[in-house]
Design a protein that fits this description.
Blueprint: H1 4-25, H2 29-34, H3 43-53, H4 56-59, H5 62-73, H6 75-85, H7 93-99, H8 111-122, E1 130-133, E2 139-140, E3 144-151, E4 156-162, H9 166-187, H10 196-211, H11 213-226, E5 233-234, E6 247-251, E7 256-257, H12 261-266, H13 271-289, E8 291-293, E9 301-303, E10 309-311, E11 317-319, H14 322-337, H15 340-349, H16 359-370, H17 383-396, H18 403-422, H19 428-444, H20 446-479, H21 492-525, E12 530-531, E13 534-535, H22 536-559
Parallel strand pairs: 5-10
Antiparallel strand pairs: 1-3, 2-3, 3-4, 4-6, 7-9, 8-11, 9-10, 12-13
Length: 562
């Protein structure tokens, strides 16, 4: 096509028409009008659609209707809802909770299409890669589907194949989402408060990471290195020769899914041991590696021989830096003592509380939150729930909670729930105590302190090395009279402008006063020429002072600041 942008524009208009129709169908007709989207659909279509589905507004809540609309709008909106379900700091809690119900299961695409896409990605005929390739996928989702296969060399593998054309569709839908976000900020009264453009940017980054299967393979390889030598956890191998950004080939794990508890019992597995090993594996991830599995739903854990836990699907991971690891360790220990002061201190260290937050009020609300746990046995305290409740409290105080901490809270809640299904008596806080104490002990050890001091000295040395060069650069600027000092403090530019205005007005008022005083002296002198019996220069001076005074008064009144 000679003008591809015409085709793209036509496609976007058609997609906007589809979005507007779906929104009206699910009771968001007023929103369509507010965003000025009604121009994309005919009046007759709007009336028919509205009349047909107007009762839906009475049956479902607003979050439910939006979730149904997302499901109908397809993969991009389903993934958007799933991302928002773990971000109660970006959307109201009732919406985030409803989006958790979004189903990612979609009809599979034909195996012939999957094979063709694999050949295009690997540049190798399919029969030269696999001795067998299951036609029916073992799983199908909005992003990709998974086929069981056997390599030509005999290894059993799973092949994750991205949906053909998905990137183009997502790019188009994301550009439309940015357009809709701008409309929300422009036309809705409190649209900017929810930062819709920021939400779309966050979603765009998340989905692009998930679309890159090379990154998922790297995550799996890192997990395998971390758990090397651990007999309780198994991470599958990645076959890099047959992996690209659109195709991921990994070792196939054989075993029983962790959620099939009855099968585990019949096979003679030790459920209590599995629960303990699972909790310990997760605690190692957050308190030892700082690199954790952020999507630990039951389908991602396979129980193998000797109660070993096989972990799959490394598309979503979280990271924790060393300082945050120490704060989380202290948080676990403070849960045991239910020490409110320590909790507040550590949540400030984690960056949950900004400097302008009312710490006294937060501490009071936090005390009210944890007070009911006093006197309870540890087995009655769910660490995941407490952690998430405190995160929600921080969000209520308008704190910008880091995404990795929200993922951690969600993962901790899921892991704890899984473990308690296997062993109702297991306690995450109790299991976390030795890990937390070990981490704190390492941080306090002389060897660690020496290392920390050494790193600080190295950083300081690098800064000192840069000072002569920076000083020389400043001197050259001064010599050339090109030195420019920039103030980057928030609000300082506005303060300087206001001070300039104030000083200008003050100078103007002094000049007017001088004119009035000078004119008065002239008037008293009685010098000619006269105008209406008064010295002309004095009269002109009064008139000039009056005009200038009125001008100054009007400018002050127009600024709204008396």
């Amino acid at each position: 096509m000679p003008f591809p942008w015409i085709k793209k524009t036509y496609h976007n208009i058609q997609r906007l028409r589809n979005i507007a129709n779906v929104l009206i169908k699910h009771g968001f007709g007023r929103l369509v009008d507010q965003l000025n989207l009604q121009r994309y659909i005919s009046l007759g279509k709007r009336l028919i659609t509205f009349k047909k589905y107007e009762t839906e507004r009475e049956v479902y809540t607003v979050p439910e209707r939006l979730r149904l609309a997302f499901e109908e709008l397809g993969p991009t909106f389903i993934k958007l809802g799933q991302v928002l379900s773990s971000r109660p700091d970006l959307v109201p809690y009732d919406f985030a909770n409803e989006f958790k119900k979004l189903q990612d299961a979609v009809p599979p695409f034909p195996a012939s299409v999957a094979k063709k896409h694999i050949e295009e990605e690997l540049h190798i005929p399919i029969h030269e890669i696999f001795s067998s390739f299951d036609e029916i996928p073992s799983a199908a989702a909005s992003i990709a589907q998974v086929h069981n296969a056997t390599l030509i060399t005999g290894e059993k593998v799973i092949v994750k194949v991205q949906r053909p054309g998905l990137r183009q569709m997502l790019d188009s839908d994301i550009s439309i989402l940015f357009y809709l976000a701008n409309l929300v900020e422009r036309y809705l009264p409190h649209g900017k408060f929810y930062n819709p453009t920021g939400i779309v940017e966050e979603f765009s980054k998340t989905i692009k990471r998930e679309l890159n299967f090379n990154m998922e393979g790297s995550n799996a390889a890192r997990f395998k290195r971390n758990f090397e030598g651990d007999d309780t956890v198994y991470i599958p191998d990645v076959y890099w020769k047959y992996t690209t950004k659109d195709v991921l080939t990994m070792e196939r794990i054989e075993g029983i899914p962790i959620y099939e508890i009855k099968r585990l019992e019949e096979a003679g597995y030790d459920k209590r041991l599995i629960a303990k090993n699972g909790i310990n594996a997760f605690l190692r991830q957050i308190l030892e590696f700082g690199f954790f599995h952020a999507d630990p739903h039951p389908g991602n854990f396979i129980i193998m021989e000797n109660n070993k836990i096989g972990i799959v699907d490394f598309g979503m991971i979280g990271r924790i830096d060393e300082d945050s690891m120490e704060s989380i360790a202290n948080t676990f220990l403070s849960f045991v003592e239910l020490d409110c002061n320590v909790l507040v201190r550590e949540y400030i260290r984690l960056g949950l509380l900004s400097e302008d937050i009312d710490v006294k009020a937060f501490k009071s609300d936090l005390r009210d939150l944890i007070e009911p746990y006093h006197g309870k046995a540890l087995r009655h305290i769910q660490a995941g729930k407490v952690f998430n409740d405190i995160l929600q409290l921080a969000i209520n105080y308008k704190a910008r909670v880091p995404n990795d901490l929200i993922l951690l809270g969600k993962a901790l809640l899921t892991i704890e729930g899984l473990a308690m299904e296997l062993d109702p008596d297991i306690t995450v806080i109790e299991e976390a105590k030795p890990f937390a104490k070990n981490l704190i002990r390492k941080r306090l050890s002389p060897a660690y302190q020496v290392t920390k001091v050494y790193k600080t000295i190295c950083d300081l040395s690098d800064v000192l090395k840069e000072i002569p060069g920076q000083f020389s650069h400043v001197l050259r600027k001064v010599m050339k009279d090109k030195l420019k000092i920039e103030f980057v403090h928030s609000g300082l530019d506005r303060l300087i402008r206001d001070m300039d205005k104030s000083s200008n007005r003050l100078s103007f008022a002094i000049i007017i006063s001088a004119i009035v005083i000078g004119s008065s002296v002239v008037m008293l002198s009685g010098k000619e020429p006269l105008l209406f019996g008064f010295p002309m220069i004095g009269v002109i001076g009064y008139i000039v002072a009056l005009v200038l005074g009125l001008w100054l008064a009007i400018s002050i009144l127009r600024s709204g600041r008396l």
